[in-house]
Automatic annotation (TrEMBL), chain A:
Catalytic activity: hexanoyl-CoA + oxidized [electron-transfer flavoprotein] + H(+) = (2E)-hexenoyl-CoA + reduced [electron-transfer flavoprotein]; butanoyl-CoA + oxidized [electron-transfer flavoprotein] + H(+) = (2E)-butenoyl-CoA + reduced [electron-transfer flavoprotein]; pentanoyl-CoA + oxidized [electron-transfer flavoprotein] + H(+) = (2E)-pentenoyl-CoA + reduced [electron-transfer flavoprotein]
Organism: Carassius auratus
Matches recorded under SUPFAM superfamilies: Acyl-CoA dehydrogenase C-terminal domain-like, Acyl-CoA dehydrogenase NM domain-like
EC number: 1.3.8.1
Signal peptide: none
Gene: acads
Family designation: Belongs to the acyl-CoA dehydrogenase family.
Chain ranges of the Acyl-CoA oxidase/dehydrogenase middle domain: 145-240
InterPro entries noted in UniProt: Acyl-CoA_DH_CS, Acyl-CoA_Oxase/DH_mid-dom, Acyl-CoA_Oxase/DH_mid-dom_sf, AcylCo_DH-like_C, AcylCo_DH/oxidase_C, AcylCoA_DH/ox_N, AcylCoA_DH/ox_N_sf, AcylCoA_DH/oxidase_NM_dom_sf
Name of the molecule in the record: Short-chain specific acyl-CoA dehydrogenase, mitochondrial
From TrEMBL, chain B:
Superkingdom of origin organism: Eukaryota
Gene Ontology MF terms in the entry: electron transfer activity
InterPro entries the record matches: ET-Flavoprotein_bsu_CS (IPR000049), ETF_a/b_N (IPR014730), ETF_b (IPR012255), ETF_beta_N (IPR033948), Rossmann-like_a/b/a_fold (IPR014729)
Residue span, Electron transfer flavoprotein alpha/beta-subunit N-terminal domain: 25-217
One Gene Ontology term from the biological process aspect of the record: amino acid catabolic process
Taxonomy of the source species: Eukaryota, Metazoa, Chordata, Craniata, Vertebrata
Task performed by this protein: The electron transfer flavoprotein serves as a specific electron acceptor for several dehydrogenases, including five acyl-CoA dehydrogenases, glutaryl-CoA and sarcosine dehydrogenase. It transfers the electrons to the main mitochondrial respiratory chain via ETF-ubiquinone oxidoreductase (ETF dehydrogenase). Heterodimeric electron transfer flavoprotein that accepts electrons from several mitochondrial dehydrogenases, including acyl-CoA dehydrogenases, glutaryl-CoA and sarcosine dehydrogenase. It transfers the electrons to the main mitochondrial respiratory chain via ETF-ubiquinone oxidoreductase. Required for normal mitochondrial fatty acid oxidation and normal amino acid metabolism. ETFB binds an AMP molecule that probably has a purely structural role.
Organism: Carassius auratus (Goldfish)
Pfam families: ETF
Protein name: Electron transfer flavoprotein subunit beta
Protein family (similarity comment): Belongs to the ETF beta-subunit/FixA family.
Listed transmembrane segments: none
Compartment(s) where it occurs, according to its Swiss-Prot or TrEMBL record: Mitochondrion matrix
GO cellular component, as recorded: electron transfer flavoprotein complex; mitochondrial matrix
Amino acid sequence: MAALFKARRALGMVVGHGVRCLSQLAELPELHQMMRQTCRDYAQKELAPIAAQLDKDHKFPAKQVKELGAMGVMAVEVPESLGGAGMDYLAYCLAVEELSRGCASTGVIVSVNNSLYLGPILKFGTEEQKKQWITPFTTGDKVGCFALSEPGNGSDAGAASTLAQQEGDEWVLNGTKAWITNCWDASATVVFATTDKSLKHKGISAFLVPMPHPGLSLGKKEDKLGIRASSTANIILEDCRIPLGNMLGERGMGFKIAMQTLDSGRLGIAAQALGIAQAALDCAADYAHKRTAFGAPIGKLQAIQFKLADMALATESARLLTWRAAMLRDAKKPFTKEAAMAKLAASEAATFVSHQAIQVLGGMGYVTDMPAERHYRDARITEIYEGTSEIQRLVIANNILKEYQQ
Amino acid sequence: MSARVLVGVKRVIDYAVKIRVKPDRTGVVTDGVKHSMNPFCEIAVEEAVKLKEKKLVKEVVAVSCGPQQVQETIRTALAMGADRGIHVEVSGKDYETLGPLQVSKILAALAKKEQADLIILGKQAIDDDCNQTGQMTAALLDWPQGTFASELTFEADKLKVVREIDGGLETIMIKLPAVVTADLRLNTPRYATLPNIMKAKKKKIANVKPADLGVDVSSRLEVLKVDEPPQRQAGVKVETVEDLVGKLKEAGRI
């Protein structure tokens, strides 16, 4: 009798878990809906009205980042004991999408802090490191950044030429990191440097460096096509000395940390791309109702209708891929292939949708009076950073071939 | 302070939605339309939560009357910081004809049952613009009322309420227990934080029926018809001031 009861309960849990996973694609749980709504409200009221000006001024939205910190959005997955919101990755993806719909730059600032900075420390840090490097970065007062790319290698991450040499009780870092998002506004960074050149990519280690810090300087802020409110620059390390305790994870683990971090990070970027795509679609659909030509709103013309349908399809498909990858990650299942698919689909959707949005708006799409041109500029980077579309295709292909291994 | 605050929250069509009248002109289209908490109710919740944070009140109870969907509205209040919720189940025809008189009877009954010391409501709902529930509730309970409040201060066992009136601002002192209705400038409602949304899930919402409170929700009003506002007519351009005066006289305006 007891055995039967146990078995029935176990089956119920399995079925319940499975049903919950599937039904989440049809309708999000109430918690996630509330979270999505609060982020949407914030983005609509506080981000959308200032996004154009932030872009024009290349201005970091410090006030908004603090407010988002107070809402728990700067550290969604971090447990409450460390100052975070203690929610799951699906919630995080929803948050980034809604915020990016208001302002893509704010979206990437939130994403980099959550996925690329807090992510690896949460996963690979010691309890001491977590207290020191996570908690102050949950409130929005401080943001972090992730320094992997170099002038000599982006996709070729294994060829890191930044060196870390042990001298007594210190690590000494030397080298240059390039394209670092958030760096002009950051208070700490996760840096990847080679500790054993002979071991090639197995000789890379990860380090935590506070900012500012002697031996660490920043290159000039890049003048970018889009996401201009977020700062991007080089980080130059010249005899930058940090305590031995600042190594993240084990020696030689750096490449693995970077790759696993990017697996999750690319879902944040997928979410950002979805937000940009959705904002562009909002703009185009609204215009289709209001703009009249040939005696009727242009939304009545099939040419426009087909565009809107394709735009919505691309966005919704990428969204479901993103949600699925996030759900797999939350269920602690392998999600590398799905994450790559999500990032690839979402970033290509963002560029496609924003391109078509300008087309729907015609001349109005080309001027700064309408946000369509900003979405077009913001979308472009999503196909490049945190793994180019080409790298995503390689990741997907490798996984497929493994599945079909002879 | 051992005060318990009751806050009424109403689920209304979202302020940003374009309202459409139903083809049979019996009401407005609500199916599939975005709903949210009445903005003045948000301000009421925010004020109650602020009082709790200042330790001037002990417990904030959010109340809503309506069908299953109003639980979303109650949960939003919980996510803003209310401690628990009460869902008064009213559905179908009763919900369609639910108005200030019935709601104020319900709130009065709940205030007695929950031993509330203060009721904070929005000054009016953005769907019917009645601006009656607060006043009726106070009358039914024989409690003092501070309506259109733009500032609320506790002074010993009294409330100092600054009211927004046509002539400017009026300050009154009322004794507790009392009813206060929130006006626009009382505060700026907070965004629900993620940790509070998580906590809201665990907070309790009790279910009650109007009959349990001894309230009859049948309406004494009948809606005859609902129409869209008249279409705005184009104006007429005139050349001189004399023409303008002439046209106004013609139209009987002066």
